[in-house]
Amino acid sequence: MSDRHFRIDRSAATEEFGLACQRLIPWPGGDAEPPVGAMACFLEPGGDSDPDCHNQDEVMIILSGSGSVTLDGRPEPPFRTGDVVVLPRNREHVVHNTGDAELSWVSLYWPLREPAVRTENEEVAA
Asked: What pTM did the predictor assign?
């Protein structure tokens, strides 16, 4: 793999969030830290991701398959190949593969690093 040319490839993914994820941005060998992050995600038929909640906006670009998302415990409309799904920050989400084939998508999220959360009495690093 060169520093500036690589492929989305399930075999390069590792287990994260209850599914297989391949980190795309930042990429190995990149010079500066980018303002966004990206990863390719792969979810087995009938599978569900682990619940996730973060102080970052996220957009899912569906590459293959079909599924749905639960936001804060509420089902959202189903999606399929070619759809774009917006996950607002600070909302718990679970991705469900409702099809009979692997579900794959690219998630873009920003900012790259989750901002610290300030409470009334203290600052907590995210």
From this structure: 0.84
